[in-house]
Every structure is written in structure tokens, then in C-alpha cells.
Amino acid sequence: MSFVSSPIQDLFIRIKNAYIARKEDIKWVQYSSFKIAILDILKKHRFIKSYTIVEEGKKKFIEISIKEVTDVVEDIPVIKFYSKPSRKIYVSYKELRSVAWGRGIGIISTNKWVMPTYEAKKKKLWWELIAEIY
User: Fold this and answer.
1) Could you give the 3-state DSSP secondary structure of residue 112?
2) ∠ CA(45), CA(47), CA(52), 5° rounding?
3) Considering Cα of 51, then 53, then 54, then 56, what sign does the dihedral take?
4) Which of 20, 49, 80, 84 could cross-link to 65 by cystine, CB 3.0-4.6 Å?
């Protein structure tokens, strides 16, 4: 395995590249509970089909199944990154807005864990804006 400076951005890029290459699944994604929380959000909003956790000895990996691409314009997600390891972007709940006129979701890391931006706005939470996907 190689060193990745931003594992969350790597996860999003792997998902997008799999859609572009018309792959059915993504294998050998390094496991972390933060990635699982993000994948739960993506599964709930139908950006991915499902995921499974695979154990190889003492190491854990994630295998992600993505949906089939039928329409290139609608099915391939657009991802905007905000926070990076070198630059964190913090937002107030007042600054949170809908993503792509309600077609997408923003992902925010709060003190109550990871959630979509619309939930954080309802609960009046603020913290680090990670990315938007639509």
C-alpha cells in the first residue's frame, strides 16, 4: 500500500474514477470508521449501491459496489473538495446552503460525527466542510 496524504479525497476520487471507467466495484480501500460514515451517507443518497468490510489477517479493507452508469451526464458525480489536510474550511450553520439546487449533498464533519449539510443546518451545528457531491 502506498501513503495517501488525504484518505477522504482519495475515497471520493476512487468513486468518481470508477464511474468514469464504468467499473462495478472498488476494492482494497483502506478501512476507517470515518470513511464508513461517509459511505453510509453516500449509500443513503444513492451515490453508491453498497459496501462491505473485508478482513485480510489483521487488516480491514472496504469493497464498494457502485451503480451502473446509464446516462453519463446524470450518473457520474461531480465532487467539490473544500477542506484539505493543509487547509481546513470551517462553516457556520448559517452559511450552509443547498447543493446543486437540491440534487446533491454536502458532507460536514461536526462534533456529533459526520452528516449531510442539510441535517447540520436543521440541528444548528457547524464545523468542517469536507466536500459537496452532486
Assistant:
1) coil
2) 100
3) positive
4) 49
Please name every residue paired with 63 in a beta bridge, in sequence order, or none if there are none.
Answer: 52
Alpha carbons 30 and 1: distance in angstroms, whole number: 9
Segment 26-78, tens digit of pLDDT: 999 999 999 999 999 999 999 999 999 999 999 999 999 998 888 777 778 88
Which has the closest alpha carbon to 85: 33, 8, 11, 24?
8
State the CATH class of domain 7-133. alpha beta
pLDDT of residue 8: 92
Q: What are the residue ranges spanned by the domains of the chain?
A: 7-133
pTM, full prediction: 0.88
Cβ contacts of 20-25, under 8 Å, gap ≥ 24: 20/76, 22/69, 23/66, 24/65, 24/66, 24/68, 25/63, 25/64, 25/65, 25/66
Query: Residue 68 is placed in which grid cell?
Result: 451502473
Give 70's DSSP letter: S
Q: How many CB atoms lie within 10 A of CB 114?
A: 21
